[in-house]
Specification:
alpha+beta, about 10% strand, single chain, two-stranded antiparallel ribbon
């Protein structure tokens, strides 16, 4: 008898990247340039960049690291 509940799509692959929905930057400079533009467009916004342990790309965050 077939299963009634199918596994989510991310479980069908060999691995799941939790940051899949985040914007990825190839390097820190690219991430920081984007952060600078966003800060200029939205005063009071504080952004920093961090290298992701899951995907090895860079992401932006509002929290300070």
């Amino acid at each position: 008898m077939p299963r009634k509940n199918k596994a989510p799509e991310y479980q069908k692959t060999t691995f799941y990247i939790p940051c899949i929905s985040k914007k990825r930057y190839k390097n820190e400079n690219e991430a920081l340039k984007t952060a600078e533009i966003q800060i200029l467009q939205n005063s009071g916004l504080e952004l920093s960049a961090y290298k992701c342990d899951n995907c090895s790309f860079w992401h932006l965050t509002r929290s300070k690291r």
